[in-house]
C-alpha cells in the first residue's frame, strides 16, 4: 500500500520541484550538492520539530518530577551543540566542494547594470566576445564567473547551477558553476536593484564545443532567435 | 495582613530588610497619591503626561496602529503577487510599499511595542512608581510619533522610501535615488531612534537602580533580565545604524563620498554598519517577547520557572553572541573563505541559548500543570511557529544553502516565522494576559480563541509554502513574474491565506476592544501570579504602589500583599510631601540609597520634539542653513530641560520606614539616577564613536579604492591647531575633574568654559586646513570624526556654562548639593578621550603614505 502510494507521490513531489529556476532541480554537481544538503536539513528539521511538538504535547497533564539538568543542559545545551556541530561540519564540507579554486578553470565575465547583463567570454581567437543577456560557458567543466557591477548592487544567480554572488561596484567577485552537460539555464538578478529588478533575467547556455563556433546556436533548440536581454529595463528610461 | 501575622526578621540573606511602616487608611493614601501622580485633566493632560503607565500604553497603542497600517500594506503586496502579471500597482509604488511595510513593521511597530511594554510593565514588576526619567519617556514617545507621521506622510504623497528596508547604497545614494524618498527613511528612522536610545537609557537605569528594596539583581523577575539585555543591546546596537544613517544622509546632502567607490568609499561599509545594528535588532525584538513568555508560562503552569540561572546565562550569551553574527546577512558579498566559516559557526551557535530557553519553557510545563487560558494558546502559537523559524534560521546559517536561499521568498518566509512566531504571538499572549491590569475588565469569552485559530491557520497558510516558492527560485522584492507560471498557484495560496491572517488580526483587535468596553469588572490578580505587577488594584493606579514592596512582599503570591501595600506598610508610603517620590537602590542588592523626586507633568517633551521635527523637515526640504538655525531652539529647550533638575523645595531627608531616613537625590552620594543615565548614554555615545572608527578602519584596510590624496601636507598651521585643540580639550577635562573631586571651586567652571571655547576655535581652524571632505572617503570620515569631537566640545562648553550658572544661583552649596558637576566631569572626560583618539588617528593617517 505504502509502496503504491510512493510510486504516485514521489513523481508528483519531484514534479513540484521542477522549474526553470528551481534550486531543487539541479543542473550540475554544485547545485546538486546544495539541494542534497537541503533535503538532509529538511529531514533533520522535520524530526526536531516533531520531537519538540511531542514534548509539548506530553506537557499537558499532572505535574511531573522534572530534572532541571536534563532539560536545560541535556536538551538545551548538548543536544543542539551535537546537532549543530554535525551540521556545521557537513556545511563546511559542501562549502569546500563548491568554492572556486585555482585549477585553471575557464573564466568568463558577468557585468551587471541597471537593468541588464553584459557577458564576456574568450573566443576561439583569444579575443573577448561580448554578449548581452546570454552567457556562454563550456558544458561539463568548472567555470569561474567574475561578477562585477556598473552602478548599484546586483546579484548573479542561476538557481539550477548553484548559489548567488553579488555584483558590487568597485569589486570583482568570483563564483564557480558547473553543468552536467550542454543546455540552457535561466538566471536572474537576486539583489533588489530598483525599478527594473524583476525583469533583470538572463540565460546561461552551456556548450559542448568550446569556444563555441557560433554562439547563437543553441545546443538544445538550434539557432537562438530570441535575444534574452532584459526588456523590462527599457520601459523605465 | 501577612505582615501583621508574622513579624519578619530584619536581616534576610545578608541584605537588611526595611522594617514595615504602621498601616494607615488605604483610601486616604490612595487619594493623596492619586492627586500627586495624576495626569492633568482632559486633553491637555494627554499632552503633558509623563506617567509610565499612560505613555507605555500609548506607545503600545500607537505601535498597534502602525502594525495595522503595515498589515494593510502587506495585503497590497500579497494582492499584487497573487497573479503573475500583478497589474495592480506600478513598480515604483510597489517598491515604496514593500519598503514601507518592512520599515514600519521593524521601526514603527516592533521596537516601539517592546519599548512600550517595558516602560509600562517594568516599574510595576520591580516595585516602583515610575521610570527613572519620566520626561524622557514622553520625549521618546513624541519623537516616535512625529518620526512615524513623517514617514507615513511621505507614503501619502508618494515619496516614501523605495530602496528596501535595509537601504543598500549605491541604490539609495543621490545618483540612483534622486528625490527625498531615501532622505525620508534616513532622517525619519534616525528621528524615531531617539526614542529607542531614550528608552534604552531609562530601562537600564530603572532596572539597575529602582528595584524595590531588597530585590537582588540575581533574584529579580526574569522579564527584567530580558529587558536589561535588550536595553544593553539597544545602547550598543542602534548607534551603528545612527552613524550609518547620518553618514549616508551627509553623503546625499553634501556629497561627502563615504560610500562612493570612485572616491575611495565602499558600499559594503553601509552593509556592515546596517547589519551591525540589524542583526542585534532581531534579538532586541525577540528578547522582550521571550521575557513575556518566561513570565506567563510559569503562571499558566502554576509552578516556578525551570532553570532561572540557565535562562539568565542564555540571555547574556545571546546579547554577546548577537554582535558577532552580522556578516551572515552578507554571505554573498564575496567575503574571504575563513570569514565565511567563522560567521557560519557563530551563527549556528546562537541557536544554543535559544534552545536553552525553549526547553526550559517546555520543562516548566512538564513540571507544572498547564492551564489552557487564552494567553497559553498564543504561547502554543509561538511554539508551533518559532521552532520552525529557528530551524530555517540554522539552515540559512549554512553558507552553501544560504547562497541559494538568500534574497528569495524562503528568507521572507523565515523572517516572518521568527518575527510573527517570536514576537507577535508572545505579544498577543502578553496583551491577553495583562489586559485586566490595563483595563480593569475581564475577557468576553469566545472571540479571542476564534481569533487565535484564524491567525494560526492564516499564518501557516501564507508563509509555509513560501519556503517552497523561494526554493523554486522566486526572489524577494519583485512585483511581477510573467515568465514563471510555476509560482502562480503557490503565490495565490499565500495571498488567500494572507487575507485570512489579516481577518484573524482584526478579530484579535475587536476582542481587545470588546474586553475594554463590554468586559465585566476584573478581579484583582486574576491569574494568581507571583509577581508584583499584580500586587495592586486593577486597573493599575497611576502611582502603582501606595507603599513600595519590602523584601517580605516579594516573590510570594501577589494577592497576599495587595492590602499591606495599599495600607502603606511598605517603604515610602503615600505622597505626604506632595511630590512624586521613588526609592533609589543599589544595583546589586537593592539596598536603599536615596529618594529621587521625579518631575511632574509638563509639555516640554512635546515642544522639544516638535522643534526636532521642524529641524528634520527643514533637512528634508534641503534648507540646510535654516535647519542649522532651527537647532537653536532645540539647544535652548535642552537647557530649560536641565534647569528643571535644579534643587527646589524641601531638601530635608525623608523617612522611608521607621527609623530609616534617606537623603533626597540632590544631596545624595552619587551616583544619582541622572548620573547613571549619563553613564548609559555615554555607552551609546561610545558605540557611535566606535562605529566611526570602524568605518575609518574599514575604508583604510579592506576597501581597495583609489588612494586618498596626500593628507594634511605637513601643514604647520594644521599641526598647531591640532595641538592647541587637544590641549584645550584636555584642560577642560582637568578643570571639570578638579571641580568634581572638590579641589577647585566655581572658578574651574569658568576655566573649563574658556578651554572649551578655545578648543572650538582651534577645531574650526583645523577644519579649514583639512582636505576637502568631498575629495575622498577617508577625508570625509576624518572630517566626520572631527565634527563628532566638535559637537562634544560644544556640549561640554554648554555644561560648563550651566555649572557656572548654577554657582551664580547658589545651587551648588553644601545645603543644596553638587548640581551638574559630576555629569559635566564625566562628559568632559569622555570628550577628551575621544578627541585624543581622533587626533591619534588623524596623525597616523597623515603620516601613512
Ligand atoms: C500581517 C501579516 C504579514 C504579511 C502578510 C506579510 C507579508 C510580507 C510580504 C509579502 C513581504 C514582501 C516579500 C517580498 O519582498 O517579496 C514582506 C516583507 C517583509 N515583512 Fe512582512 N508580512 C506580515 C507581517 C510582518 C511583521 C509582523 C513583520 C515584522 C515584525 C514583518 C516584517 C517584514 C520585513 C522586514 C519585510 C522585508 C521588507 C523588505 O524586503 O524590505 N512583516 N512581508
Ligand atoms: Cu539587478
From TrEMBL, chain A:
Pfam families: COX2. Residues 209-237 are annotated as: Disordered. Keywords: Copper, Electron transport, Membrane, Metal-binding, Transmembrane, Transmembrane helix, Transport. The chain crosses the membrane at residues 34-59, 71-94. Residues 222-231 have a biased composition (Low complexity). Residues 103-219 form the Cytochrome oxidase subunit II copper A binding domain. Signal peptide: none annotated. It is found in: Membrane. It catalyses: 4 Fe(II)-[cytochrome c] + O2 + 8 H(+)(in) = 4 Fe(III)-[cytochrome c] + 2 H2O + 4 H(+)(out). Its main location: membrane. Gene3D superfamilies: Cupredoxins - blue copper proteins (2.60.40.420). Belongs to the cytochrome c oxidase subunit 2 family. This is Cytochrome B.
UniProtKB/TrEMBL annotation, chain B:
SUPFAM superfamilies: Cytochrome c oxidase subunit I-like (SSF81442), Cytochrome c oxidase subunit III-like (SSF81452). PROSITE patterns: COX1, COX1_CUB. Keywords: Cell membrane, Copper, Electron transport, Heme, Iron, Membrane, Metal-binding, Respiratory chain, Translocase, Transmembrane, Transmembrane helix, Transport. It holds the Pfam family COX1. Its main location: membrane. InterPro entries: Cyt_c_oxase-like_su1_dom, Cyt_c_oxase-like_su1_sf, Cyt_C_Oxase_1, Cyt_c_Oxase_su1_BS, Cyt_c_oxidase_su1_bac, Cyt_c_oxidase_su3-like_sf. Residues 38-552 form the Cytochrome oxidase subunit I profile domain. Its EC number is 7.1.1.9. It catalyses: 4 Fe(II)-[cytochrome c] + O2 + 8 H(+)(in) = 4 Fe(III)-[cytochrome c] + 2 H2O + 4 H(+)(out). The keyword Transmembrane helix applies. The chain crosses the membrane at residues 55-77, 97-121, 141-160, 180-201, 222-248, 268-293, 305-327, 339-362, 374-403, 415-435, 447-468, 488-514, 595-617, 623-642, 677-699, 719-740, 747-768, 780-804, 825-848. Belongs to the heme-copper respiratory oxidase family. This is cytochrome-c oxidase. It comes from Roseinatronobacter alkalisoli. The gene is ctaD.
